[in-house]
Fold:
Amino acid sequence: MINIKFNVKNLYRNLYLGKTLNLIWQISPVQATVSLLFLLSENICWIGTMYTLKLLIDRLINRPVTHNTDGITAAILLAGGVAILYGCVKSISSFVNERQSAAVNNYIDKQIHQHTIGLDYSCYEDPAYLDILKRAREAGVDRPYAVVLSLQEIGRNVAMLASMGYILISIDWILPPLLCLFVAPLLIIRIKFSKSLYLWQRKHTGIEREASYLSSLITGDMSAKEIRSFSLGQHLLTKYGKIKETLLTHQLKHSRRRTVIELVSTIVTTAAFFAVTAYIIFGIMNGKTSVGDIAVFLVIFPQSFSVMQGLAGGISGLYQNNRYLADIFALFKLKPTIESAAFTALTEKRESNDFVVENLSFKYPHATEYVLENIHLHIPAGQVIGLVGLNGAGKSTLIKLLCRLYDPLEGMIRIGNKDIRELNINEYRSKVSVVFQDFVKYNLSANENIRLGNIHAPFNPTGIKKAAEDAGAATYINDFPDQYDTVLGRTFENGHEISIGQWQRLAIARAFYSKSQLVILDEATSALDTIAEHELLANIKQKLGGRSALVISHRLSTIQQADLIYVMGDKKIIEYGTHEMLIQKKGTYAALFKS
Ligand SMILES: Nc1ncnc2c1ncn2[C@@H]1O[C@H](COP(=O)(O)OP(=O)(O)OP(=O)(O)O)[C@@H](O)[C@H]1O
Structure:
C-alpha cells in the first residue's frame, strides 16, 4: 500500500497534464473547444442509446396483453434514431480528433526542430544532450495528443461505467465492487510495466545510440568506401549484432514477464466472471434474481469488463505517454548559454573593424585541461593573416571561438573596441564567414550551395557567379547541363556528384559570397591541387575586396603570402611575424617550413 501511495504521489508530481493541456489549448483554442464539445456529445449520445434501449426493454416487458405495437414501434424508432445519431457523432468526433492531432503533431515537430537550432553548438559535443535529443525525437511528436486521447478514453469509460454501474446495482449491489476488485490488479500491472519499460528504455538510450551509430556506418554513403576498402563490414556487423542482441534479450525478458502476469490476471478475471455468473444463476434458482436480470447481466457484465480494461488502458497510456512527455519538455527546457545582446549593438560607429583576440584562455565545457592559454592575435581590417601549428595545437578551437560557437573563459575577442559578447549574436555571426575543415556538402543546386553564404539577402545571380569564379568553381559549374541549377551530390535523382576538391571550392565560394568582414579558411584548400591553391591565394586580397582573412593551413607555401603569420604551439601563440621574419628567426616556423 505504501508503495502504491508513493507511486501515485510520484506520478502526480511528475505529471505534465496541465502543461500539455495548456499547450494544446494555445495551439488552437477553437479546435480544442470543438473537440471537447464532440467528446461530450459522443458520451451523451452513448448514454442516450443505453437509456432508449432500457426504455424499449421496459416497454416490452410491461406491454399490455394486446397486439397493439404502437408504443413498441415508437421505442424501436427512438432507440434506432439515437443509435444512428451516436454513430454519426462518433465518426465526426474521430475526424475532429484526427485534425486536432495533426495540428498538435505538426506544432511539436516544429518546436523540436526550432528548439534544436537555437541551442549552443556545445550541446552537440555533449553525450547527455544527445541522449535527451534522441529520447525527445523517439518519444514522437504524437505523444502530447496521445495524452489527450488517453484522457478522453478515461472520461468516456468512466461515463460508461457509471451508467453500467447503475444498471448492475439494480441487479445486485455487490456486482460493481466485485468488478473493481477484479480489474484493479490488471490496472496496477499495466502501470507497473509501462513504468519499467520506460525506465529500461531510458537506461539504454546510450547503447541504442551506439547501435544506430554503427548501423549508420554500415549502411551510410559517407562510410561505404572505407568500410569496403578495409573490409570492416563484418567486424562492424558483429559489434552491432552484439548490442542488438543485448537489447533484444532485455526486451524479450520484459515482455515475457508482462505476458505471464497478464495471463495469470486474465485467468483470474475470467474465473471471477464465471463465479459471479454462478452467483447470479444460484440467485435465480433461489428466486432472488429475475430472468430479465440475468439477461441484462450477461449483456452488461462482459461489456463492463472491456470498459474497465479500456479504463486501465487509458490510465496506463496516460502514465506512459506522460513519461515520454517528460523527455520532450526536458528538451524544451534546455536553454542556450551563449548570451546575445539586442540587435542594434553592431550598428554603432566603431573606431576600427579589426578583430582582436586578447589574453584569451579556454577549455571545453566537460574537459579539465585548458586548450588555449593567453592567446593574443590581431587581424587588421583588410589583411590576410596566417595561422599555423602542429596537430592539436588549438587552431580549430580558436576558430570556434571566433565564430562565437563558444565564449572564452578568460580574456576576450573584440571588433574594434567592442567585446563581441556585447553584440547581437546573429549580427556578429553575419560578420564572420568560415570554411570549416569538415564543411558541409549540401545536396542542393550549385546556386543554393553558394547562396547559403548569405541566405538573408535577396537572390543575386551575378554575385553568386562572381563568388564561384573567385573560388575557381565557375569552370566546372558551367560545364554542367543545368549549370547553376544542377543539383549536386548523389542523394537525389539527377544529382551530379563532384570531386572533394570541387566541393571545397564551392564551400569557399559560399564564404566569398557572404557579406562578412572576416573570412576564415580552416584547411579550406587542403583538397585543392597546388596550382589551384596558389591561384586562389595569390589574388585573395582582390577577391576579398577589402575584407580580412584568417587562413589556416599545414601547407606553409600557402601561408607565406600572408601579411602576418601566427604560430601556435601547445595552447599558446609562440611566434608571429612575416614569412621572412619568421624564417630569419629560425624558430618553430622555420623548422616547419624546411621539413
Ligand atoms: N569538443 C572537444 N572537447 C574536448 N576537447 C577537444 C574538443 N575538440 C578538440 N579538443 C581538444 O582540443 C585540442 C585542440 O584541438 P583543435 O582541434 O583545436 O586542434 P588543431 O590545432 O585545430 O588541430 P589540427 O591541426 O589537427 O586540426 C586537442 O587536444 C583536442 O583533443
Observations:
- Residues 1-9 have pLDDT under 50 and may be disordered.
